[in-house]
Design brief:
This protein has 377 residues and is an alpha+beta fold. It is 53% helix and 15% strand. It has a four-stranded mixed beta sheet. The protein has a four-stranded antiparallel beta sheet with strand order 2-3-7-6, with no helix packed on it. Strands 9-10 form a two-stranded antiparallel ribbon.
Length: 377
């Protein structure tokens, strides 16, 4: 595995970092204060090609590799994990299922709009009674002539306030073979956006409930075959977990950067606290764990690039990077002392943002299940 990024990948890193600092940083406070979806930021990301980085040029994407896409999420998440989540969900599980499982007609209809940022994508799997155990979803889809009629609800849907398309999973039969996937448009009759969730962190990501009340979906909106829904969900969650791992890595790197800067500047007992062994050892451990997380993330990326099995690698990257994000954020707050507990310092936000990376796209308890299952097969 070559750990050196190509010139094109380094250009993506610089572009994403420059964009984050110039366009996203100024919006973070408003996202925090108003819980406002950053429409203008998303529009500008579309104009730069960031909303379709790994999408082929024939469908209006940037035609770049998966590595470049993960680099972008990583860099953006250092400034705003919320915007990193918007981009990750939009691309990994909002657009990729159509690219990988859609008909050519579906690809031509939706992907150019998603890749340009004209459309925002969302992924609707989780339900009030079906989170980690996704196979137990209750939302139903019954065939009625040229349509499917969907009834049920979805929960914790990122991008939901502004998404145009929702990759939606509903039950057409029994068991995992009885789940199907649909491309549901925002203006579909019987479909409505429910309440917005008030969350600990990731403010501005438009997290909502969805309601399907005799929602009439044309049969041509079926994604893949009628029995392929669970397979589609699991295939795209694997890729999505690498995006969340990159987000967690970005939070961890930002927390470490702020902790080092503060420890060098803060003087106690006549010297910068970075010179005190208790603090310097914390920074050493944090740095080592962040670098280890980075290696796991890009090892998983390498499996995608080379079409290798990635279930175990994606789960290891997601689990370790998210745990590192949480641990690094906690230590960064500790190093800042009382200041770290105030909103005046970014580490307070990193602490709140880090926690969800251990929960969504499959809790870390589920990642243990996935990893151990791979070991025993």
């Amino acid at each position: 595995m070559d750990l050196t990024f190509t010139e094109e990948q380094e250009m993506m890193r610089k572009m994403a970092r420059d964009f984050a600092e110039a366009e996203i940083a100024s919006e973070v406070e408003r996202m925090e204060r108003e819980d406002r979806f950053p429409e203008e930021v998303v529009r500008k990301m579309g104009e730069l090609g960031l909303m379709g980085i790994p999408i082929p040029e024939k469908y209006g994407g940037s035609g770049m590799d998966f590595t470049s896409y993960i680099i972008a999420i990583n860099e953006i998440s250092k400034v705003s994990a919320g915007v990193g989540a918007i981009l990750s969900v939009h691309t990994s599980v909002g657009t990729n299922p159509i690219l990988k499982f859609g008909t050519e007609k579906q690809r031509e209809k939706y992907i150019p709009k998603l890749a340009s940022g004209e459309y925002v994508g969302a992924f609707a799997l989780t339900e009030p009674g079906a989170g980690s155990d996704a196979a137990t979803i209750k939302t139903t889809a019954k065939r009625d002539g040229e349509h499917y009629i969907l009834n049920g609800s979805k929960l914790f849907i990122t991008n939901g306030t502004h998404a145009n398309t929702f990759i939606t999973f509903a039950r057409t039969g029994e068991g995992t073979k009885g789940i199907s996937a649909f491309i549901v448009e925002r203006n579909t009759p019987g479909f409505s956006i429910g309440k917005a969730e008030k969350k600990m962190g990731l403010h501005g990501t438009g997290t909502v409930t969805l309601n399907f009340d005799h929602c009439k979906v044309p049969k041509e909106q079926l994604l893949g075959e009628e029995t392929e829904g669970f397979k589609i969900a699991m295939a795209n969650l694997g890729v999505g977990r690498i995006g969340i791992a990159a987000q967690g890595l970005g939070i961890a790197e930002a927390a470490l950067e702020h902790a080092i800067h503060y420890a060098k500047a803060r003087v106690q007992f006549g010297k910068p606290i970075a010179r005190l062994q208790g603090i310097s050892f914390k920074l050493a451990d944090m740095t080592t764990e962040v670098e280890a997380a980075k290696l796991l993330v890009y090892r998983a990326v390498d499996h995608v690039e080379n079409n290798l099995p990635l279930s175990k690698e994606a789960s290891m990257a997601k689990m370790y990077a998210s745990n590192t994000a949480m641990k690094t954020a906690i230590e960064a707050v500790q190093i800042h002392g009382g200041y770290g507990y105030t909103e005046d310092y970014a580490v307070e936000r990193f602490f709140r943002e880090a926690k969800v990376t251990q929960i969504y796209e499959g809790t870390n308890e589920i990642q243990h299940v996935v990893i151990s299952k791979n070991l025993l097969e």
